[in-house]
Write a structure and sequence with these properties.
By secondary structure, the protein is an alpha+beta fold. The chain contains 53 helices and 26 strands. It has a five-stranded antiparallel sheet with strand order 3-6-11-7-8.
């Protein structure tokens, strides 16, 4: 140190940036001798290079001198000569190098020698030079790109290089940001740079000593100034640039485990530098290290405190029901706050930050970590952890299991190679470095290439220091990739095979829950199919198709890698390497890198068995609750099970209080959302089971690939999850305010809030929430787990591991260290699957609700309630729900909600849907854009488009209304069209009316035609009857009721469980349709005049164009002709001797009808001798008490032992009744009820029992005793007629036959299924007759069940009301009891007339009642009636 009175040198050392402590003796006492000479050398050096830079312009190639385009805009696209391009590149490169040296020298000169002087002119000149250098650099890249075009135009990887350069140009970061990143990088790796710093200091000290000797020599020879050579020798810019470049090279080598100095050499260097440096310098170095490390700690602390702020910012919820601090908000309260805009902490990005990868481990540190293990990070783990289980043995809770030395050696060798592959892959995205990387044979050769600029090395160093997780994953996958490119993975088509009608109906049902994109995309697809065009998705139409790069293998630094990331699943070894390299990565981030569900699932299983030595991966599914769901294939990403805590009902005041009545109610439903495998049989079963439990859980499923809502509750009241009501007065008079409900907005905010995402879309997003608010979250969890067990068909506890057998058989566990590793080829060791099947294992089932546990050893079956595991009843039900799995149990099939005639009817009118679909098809031929739906809700009274009949689609302007009318008229005349099939007349009728019109019609027949409205007044011909000229003019209720009748008949027969019943009905339909649609060539027209006579007799006209909306009125309506023809055909089968039935006789003689000649339908004696193999129709009210004795005993015992009723029902009962319920469910006869599955709410119970005539066959019966008064059944019904009060047929028939010797009779039985009648059950009554089954599921009937109290009288009353409408004509010839009608005629023709009239009256509007010809006996005498079994007349 100089004396205090002497001036001190103001220069800063080039090595460490510290102030020089020597005396200032030159340059007016500004610098010491060394820095004075160094300063002058820098000045002279950049002045000389400035002169060289100015002279370089005169040496520019001819192309640059003659070009009128500024260099910043030059693309060199007109240069075709390789030599010219090389000249341009050499010139620009020289200019770039000179500019860099001038800029760096000027900056160095000003920073280290005049740090306190502000020279704005100097800075402005530096900015000009920097801008020029940037332009030259961009021009260099364009020259390289153009050179590649010329040289490698024929090479297969040229296009790919061009794309890499284009991507780099569009994603290039700003220079200022790179400078900040560079500074941060050097701060993080300051310790790693100490070796380089010590070398620089030693070099500077050596130069300082040489400068002192040189100064003494110069003084002795008394030289005035230094020579030019001396200046060059003292110019430090070359050394400085080399040092700067070496810093980046050393860092890269450190990252790649290619250390420049060995540890012992480093220690020697440290000792030498310490002894050589003055004390002040050493102190300065230590101070610098401390000053650099302090901000790092501070930043780390700040970052740590910032992370929890995602959930800890105080704000108010938009809902007054949840007033919590932000730290307390979770689940739905968090979503409410986000929706209200008061809490942005859950937005995208807050939970998706990259992990800290700044701590680059050395090989020794990594070996130590793997050898000794590290503490596990349980942050974010909520719930109990079961220690001592197969997955988490004792001793593995706190630290990761240590690895063996041989495994570590193999892993280190692989990681070294992966680091090099990672480096090479990062080079692929750096266009300016690609040429050098392609030419280099090793990484060392590449780093030693002097043509690589310092800026490029800096950019590369930043990438190598902090590679993305995707880059690490790709490098791990590259290690095991084959030499050939991966085969193209065939993805499932996103387009379903849907018709226009399917798309319209689905959009009507779920359009409010899904994006409109699904509708438009599928309409576009169907339009393309209609026109025979290539099928393109909406994204392909809106966005240009992204061309996949050609798959090419290139040599980068001597390593062969593919130019694209691997799209295949990565092996477990690759994931092991990834977990070691990205040690701070959380598994929630790793799953985003999985390519498909199988890879994701395997990664989850391996993590749960502690295969990965990563401390942060244990938080994924470690707690027992989450792990159990993961093991069963359900991966929750959002849940809120705190409904019981938040629900409350507060009210105060009232009639006896001085205060006004006030109330504050809040209700919440527990909810859980997760991912499941798409198109998987287990997923399909689970979702089907949950959809049948609407009394407990509600289900919504979104397709991750298409965005389609596959299923969701239809009732708006079922969608809410949080609601409240508060105010003054009675709470019952106040409406609920829906705070939160399942829908598009909920979907979006949950996606923002969740803390992990999948990297693929081939999955389902499953939403499950409680139906009953305020319940314990454990109940929802239990339902999920139980249904998942059954979906996996787990019969006993050990079966939970059965689907993991393929990979458990390839893993083994070290008995000493508990380390799980892969089994080597040919190695004979104990596998994890062997451990799972150890007979000494103890499985524990915990009931969190009742706080009880059950245990079982090994393969034993657990003594648990029947609903806990898969059993015989579940298997019997599955055989009905999934018949395809009887052939192939593990099929890749998508989940589809149950679709039947009833569900389609609920979506809207079938005719209208077909009409809309037809319009869509027509518009496809006329318009280039898909039709826009305007009818997306029910046909309500407020829908003017329905009331007016306007088109529901927008067409091009050139499609006029007149053209539309012509099209509609054409549709109505098209016999093959499906839209207007309701108006089709039987071909037999059409042909005969033509023949009648060709001949002469006498006056009597004309009068009859006139009376029934079929006479054309202008020409005296027979009218064809009302036809649909345009659907716009048709009453919408007519369409809906006609469609409903067609749908209900289909549902009825689908739900008919009587053996052989479907075949019999199909045969009946085939015969009737064959009679009506045969060609009418015979001249016999008696049958036609007979049907008109019946209409005239009944006072019914066939020309009705209007429609009555009175539900009980059978007419008027436009389908009289079709209905009377069908009624006549039903009866004509059984009157072969009458001329009026000649067409039926002709049909049985035809080729089509001959196969039905021997049908048992003609043989009444054969049919009468065989009683139906079905249960009786006696209702619950009239069954003897002895019938229910066994069930009553079960209920009594369950009460005494406090056993839930479903657990007390015998398994054989469940085996008997659950398949029956499944069949009725699939047919649409019953449906899951939105009713709590409690006997206090649901009045009925499904039980199994036998009857005397079927002692060995159990059947379904419903107990409506309603012991807990769930429904207030009336004790008496006004006007009720008991079954024993119904008319008795035989005495009436005998009396009639006594008066009419030729009397003939018809016993017509209304069609009904074994368990229900063909009669609608009103909406207000459906919940009154709901019932619980043996699986505690709630069901509602859509039609009158035969077990319903007084169901016999209900059907008797229905027939009574209808027959009374024609009582005047029928007189006492027709009587009925329950659902059986006795028709009497004096002879066959008279019976035909009455029977046809009765059939017409019953089967016409509302078109869903029919007589069962197989259980009816038509055209028989009294002797036959006497021999009939009483069953047929009851």
């Amino acid at each position: 140190m100089p004396p205090p009175s002497e001036p001190i040198c103001q220069a800063l050392n080039l090595s460490d940036g510290k102030r020089c402590t020597n005396a200032a003796v030159v340059w007016d006492d500004l610098f010491c001798r060394f820095h004075g000479k160094q300063c002058h050398g820098l000045y002279a050096g950049y002045k000389k290079r400035n002169a060289q830079l100015d002279g370089l312009a005169e040496q520019a190639p001819e192309y640059l001198r003659s070009s009128e385009t500024p260099l910043a805009n030059e693309t060199f696209e007109h240069v075709e000569d390789e030599t010219v391009l090389n000249q341009i590149h050499a010139h620009l490169f020289s200019e770039y190098v000179l500019l860099s040296k001038v800029i760096d020298a000027r900056k160095l000169h000003h920073k280290h020698f005049f740090p306190l002087k502000l020279d704005y002119g100097h800075q402005a000149y530096l900015d000009t030079l920097s801008n020029r250098r940037h332009i030259v650099l961009r021009a260099l890249e364009k020259v390289v790109k153009r050179t590649a075009e010329v040289l490698y135009a024929k090479e297969e990887w040229f296009n790919w290089i061009g794309k890499v350069q284009h991507i780099e140009e569009t994603t290039r970061e700003k220079e200022a940001k790179k400078v900040k990143l560079e500074a941060a990088m050097f701060k993080r790796h300051w310790k790693k740079m100490q070796t380089r710093l010590r070398a620089q200091r030693e070099k500077e000290e050596k130069q300082r000593q040489e400068a002192f000797l040189e100064s003494a020599y110069q003084e002795r020879i008394n030289a005035a100034t230094e020579s030019e050579q001396d200046i060059e020798m003292w110019d430090p810019i070359e050394d400085f640039l080399e040092d700067e470049r070496s810093k980046y090279v050393d860092l890269i080598k450190h990252f790649l485990w290619m250390e420049v100095l060995k540890e012992e050499e480093e220690e020697d260097e440290k000792k030498r530098s310490t002894s050589a440096l003055p004390t002040g310098s050493a102190t300065g170095a230590n101070t610098l290290g401390a000053s650099q490390s302090a901000p790092t700690k501070k930043a780390k602390k700040k970052s740590k405190s910032k992370a929890p702020s995602v959930a800890d910012k105080p704000s108010e919820s938009r809902s007054a029901i949840i007033k919590q601090s932000q730290g307390e908000r979770t689940g739905q309260t968090k979503i409410l706050a986000m929706m209200g805009g008061k809490d942005a902490s859950g937005r995208i990005g807050d939970n998706n930050t990259e992990p800290d990868k700044s701590n680059i481990e050395t090989e020794e540190a990594m070996r130590k970590r793997l050898k000794e293990g590290v503490d596990k990070n349980y942050a974010g783990v909520y719930g109990p952890i079961l220690v001592g289980s197969l997955e988490t043995p004792h001793g593995t809770l706190d630290k990761t299991t240590p690895m063996d030395d041989d495994e570590i050696d193999t892993l280190m060798q692989d990681i070294k190679e992966i680091k090099l592959l990672l480096f090479c892959r990062l080079l692929l995205s750096h266009a300016s470095l690609l040429p050098a990387a392609l030419q280099a044979n090793s990484v060392d050769e590449f780093l030693n290439d002097t043509k690589i600029t310092e800026a490029d090395l800096r950019d590369l160093c930043l990438k190598v220091e902090q590679p993305s997780l995707q880059d690490i994953r790709d490098a791990c996958a590259d290690l095991l990739r084959e030499d050939e490119p991966e085969t193209e993975i065939t993805k499932d088509s996103e387009h379903e095979d849907l018709s226009f009608e399917d798309i319209i109906l689905h959009d009507r049902r779920y359009g409010h829950l899904q994006s409109p994109a699904w509708y438009y995309e599928n309409m576009i697809v169907q339009r393309a199919k209609t026109l025979g065009e290539p099928v393109m998705s909406l994204r392909e139409l809106l966005l240009p198709a992204l061309e996949m790069p050609e798959k090419t293998k290139v040599q980068i630094c001597g390593k062969s890698i593919w130019n694209y990331s691997s799209e295949s699943s990565m092996s477990r070894e690759g994931w092991l390497q990834f977990s070691v390299l990205a040690k701070d990565c959380d598994l929630r981030k790793a799953v985003q890198l999985c390519r498909n569900w199988n890879e994701f699932s395997q990664l989850n299983f391996l993590a749960s068995w502690q295969y990965f030595p990563a401390s942060n991966w244990v938080s994924w599914g470690t707690d027992r609750f989450t792990k159990q769901l993961h093991d069963l294939g359900f991966f929750p990403f959002f849940y809120d099970l705190s409904a019981e805590k938040f629900s409350h009902h507060f009210q105060a005041g009232g009639s006896r209080s001085q205060q006004r009545r006030v109330h504050d109610f809040a209700e919440a439903r527990n909810i859980m959302v997760g991912h499941m495998k798409r198109n998987d049989s287990v997923t399909r079963r689970f979702l089907q089971y949950c959809s049948m439990r609407s009394g407990e859980v509600l289900l919504a499923v979104r397709d991750g690939k298409t965005g389609k809502i596959i299923t969701a509750p239809h009732s708006e009241d079922a969608l809410w999850t949080v609601r409240s009501k508060r105010g003054v007065g009675r709470a019952s008079k106040n409406e609920w305010d829906i705070e939160l409900k399942v829908g598009m907005e909920y979907f979006e905010f949950v996606d923002m809030y969740r803390n992990w995402h999948l990297g693929f879309d081939d999955c389902y997003e499953v939403w499950l929430w409680h139906f009953v608010p305020g319940q314990s979250g454990t109940l929802l969890y239990n339902v999920l787990v139980e249904e998942l067990r059954k979906a996996w068909r787990i019969v006993k506890p050990v079966d939970i591991y059965k689907h993991q057998e393929p990979f458990l058989s390839t893993l083994t566990r070290n008995e000493k260290t508990k380390r799980v590793r892969s089994i080597k080829h040919g190695e004979q060791v104990k596998t994890l699957w062997d451990e799972v099947n150890n007979p000494n294992n103890v499985f524990i089932l915990t009931d969190m609700t009742n706080k009880t546990t059950r245990t079982v050893k090994g393969e034993g079956a657990l003594d648990a309630p029947p609903h806990t595991f898969y059993n015989e009843a579940d298997a019997a039900e599955d055989a009905i729900l999934f018949p395809d799995e009887l052939i192939s149990p593990n099929r890749n099939v998508p989940f589809k909600e149950v679709s039947n005639a009833i569900t389609r009817l609920e979506d809207g009118s079938g005719t209208m849907s077909r009409y809309l679909a037809k319009l869509a098809i027509e518009s496809s031929h006329r318009s280039n854009r898909p039709p826009r739906p305007q009818l997306l809700d029910d046909y309500s009274d407020t829908d003017e488009s329905v009331k007016t009949g306007d088109s529901f689609y927008d067409f091009d302007d050139d499609f006029s209304d007149e053209e539309s009318d012509k099209e509609s008229a054409k549709d109505s005349e098209d016999e093959d069209g499906d839209v207007t099939r309701h108006w089709r007349l039987p071909r037999l009728w059409e042909d005969q009316t033509i023949r009648i019109n060709e001949g002469h019609i006498d006056a009597t027949k004309k009068k009859r035609l006139s009376n029934v409205g079929l006479l054309e007044l202008l020409n005296g011909k027979v009218r064809k009857g009302p036809r649909a000229k345009n659907l716009k003019t048709v009453d919408r209720m007519l369409l809906m009721e006609k469609d409903r009748g067609e749908a209900l008949i289909g549902a009825f027969h689908a739900g008919d469980l009587e053996p052989d019943a479907p075949r019999k009905y199909e045969e009946t339909c085939a015969i009737v349709n064959g009679i009506l649609n045969q060609q009418g060539t015979d001249g016999n027209q008696t049958w036609l005049w007979f049907t008109l006579e019946v209409l005239e007799w009944l006072g019914v006209r066939a020309d009705y164009s209007d429609y009555t909306q009175v539900m009980t009125a059978p007419w008027p309506h436009p389908f009289i002709t079709q209905d009377i023809m069908k009624a006549w055909a039903y009866m004509a089968i059984f009157f072969p001797d009458l001329e009026q039935c000649q067409p039926a006789t002709d049909f049985f003689k035809s080729e089509e009808g001959q196969k039905y000649q021997e049908s048992a339908l003609h043989n009444v004696h054969q049919r009468a001798s065989t009683l139906p193999d079905i249960r009786t129709k006696t209702s619950f009210r009239y069954r003897p008490k002895s019938f229910w004795r066994e069930w009553e005993d079960i209920v009594t015992k369950a009460k005494e032992t406090r056993t839930y009723y479903a657990d007390a029902i015998p398994l054989k009962w469940s085996v008997a009744i659950r398949p029956i319920l499944a069949k009725l469910y699939l047919a649409g006869i019953i449906a899951p009820a939105l009713l709590q599955n409690s006997p206090q709410v649901c009045p009925g119970f499904a039980v199994a029992n036998t009857e005397p005539h079927r002692p060995d066959k159990m059947d379904l019966f419903i107990d409506y005793a309603d012991r807990l008064n769930a429904c207030d059944y009336p004790s008496t019904w006004p006007g009720i007629v008991r079954p024993d009060e119904f008319p008795v047929f035989l005495p009436i028939a005998r009396s009639f036959a006594a008066k009419h010797p030729s009397a003939r009779f018809a016993v017509l039985r209304l069609w009904s299924a074994p368990h229900f009648y063909p009669a609608m059950l009103g909406d207000h009554n459906r919940m009154n007759y709901a019932f619980l089954d043996s699986a505690a599921r709630t069901w509602r009937w859509n039609f009158i069940p035969k077990d319903m109290p007084v169901s016999e009288w209900s059907m008797w009353n229905n027939l009574e009301l209808r027959l009374n409408l024609v009582k005047k004509q029928l007189g006492d010839r027709v009587v009925h009891r329950s659902d059986v009608v006795l028709v009497m005629g004096v002879d066959q023709l008279d019976l035909l007339r009455y029977a046809t009239a009765v059939t017409f009256a019953i089967q016409t509007k509302p078109w869903f009642r029919e007589f069962d010809l197989w259980k009816s006996f038509i055209n028989v005498d009294t002797e036959f009636l006497e021999t009939l079994d009483p069953y047929w007349l009851d």
